[in-house]
Amino acid sequence: MREKAAFYLANGAQIVWLAYTKKRRMVEALYADGEFDIFSEADTLTAGDLLPGFAVLVKSLFEE
To answer: Residue 31 belongs to what domain range?
Structure first.
């Protein structure tokens, strides 16, 4: 997944979200500038200036 994320970022994507569904249930946000953020189930996932107003509880991504 990281290899694909690096490809997308190198080819114009500004952000890539990697969702880990097994043990930790978290989302890793990778940015074009090389920075990253980790969002746990208790956090709200946002996309900053890329998608103004977008917000979703990480926990809700893993609910069935």
So the answer is: 2-61
Domain count within the chain: 1
Residue ranges, the chain, pLDDT below 50:
none
Distances (CA, A) of 61 to 22, 35, 58: 13, 23, 5
Residues forming beta bridges with residue 19, ordered by sequence position = 27
User: Which helix H or strand E contains 9, and what residues bound it?
Assistant: helix 2-10
Q: Taking the CB of residue 61, how many other CB atoms lie within 10 A of it?
A: 16
Cβ(20)–Cβ(40) below 8 Å: no
Residue whose token pair is 């956090």 = 43
